[in-house]
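The methods section describes the discrete structure representation at length, but only in general terms. What matters is that the chain and its backbone geometry are given together, residue for residue. Nothing conveys this as quickly as seeing an actual entry. For illustration, here is how one protein appears when written out as sequence plus structure tokens:
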Amino acid sequence: MLNHPQCKPDDGLFHIFLVRSNVSRLRMLLILLALETGKHVDMKAAEFIDCTAYRFEPISKGSYNDLDGEIVESGPIQGIVLPGATRAYCNVED
């Protein structure tokens, strides 16, 4: 899945993908299917924000919130980048 094809794991940014406008279910399905190839970046309803911290506050009570594919309760959602907070190791076989 290519949520943000230009991003790199160590760039120190959140790459937020939003569909802010009212779209039909069919249009939303097409956007989600386009995630597989990265072609959603050229779609009219797709919006991208690069940041080091964020806070989302719902416009209306009881809104539907989805964070990285997980449903979360209605209310503010926030995050901040912590550079160097994790380390990843892999074993490369010849």
